[in-house]
Amino acid sequence: MRIALLSDVHGNLPALRSVLEDVDSTNADQVWCLGDLVGYGAEPDGCVALARERCDLVLAGNHDLVVTGSEKVQISDFSDIAAEAARWTREHIAPESLKFLSGLEPEAFGREIGLFHASARDPVWEYVLADWQAEDCMNRMKPRVGAVGHSHVALWFHRNGDAEMDGSRAPAGTEIDISAGEWLLNPGGAGQPRDGDPRAAWLLLDTERWTAEWRRVEYPIEEAARAIEEAGLPTVLAERLYAGQ
Question: What is the rounded average pLDDT of the residues 33-48?
Answer without folding.
Answer: 98
